[in-house]
Amino acid sequence: MLVVGIISLVTSLVMIASVLFFPKIRIGKASFESYWIICLLGALSLIVFGFISVQDVLDNLLANTAINPLKIVTLFISMTALSIFLDEIGFFEYLASWTLHKAKSNQVVLFLYLYILTSILTVFTANDIIILTFTPFICYFAKNAKINPIPYLVGEFVAANTWSMMLIIGNPTNIYLGVASGITFFEYAKIMFIPTVICGFTTLGILFLVFNKSLKQPISTSEVTKKPDKFLLIVGLVHLAACTILLSISSYIGFEMWFVTLGFAISLLVIVSISKLVRKTKEKLVLKTLKRMPWTLVPFVLSMAIIVGALKQYQVTDAIAEALGGKFVGLEYGLASFFSANLINNIPMSILFSKIVVDVTPASQTLAVYATIVGSNLGAILTPIGALAGIMWMSILKEHGIKYNYRSFLKYGIVVGIPAIFVTILVLAIIL
Question: What pTM was computed for the model?
Answer without folding.
Answer: 0.83
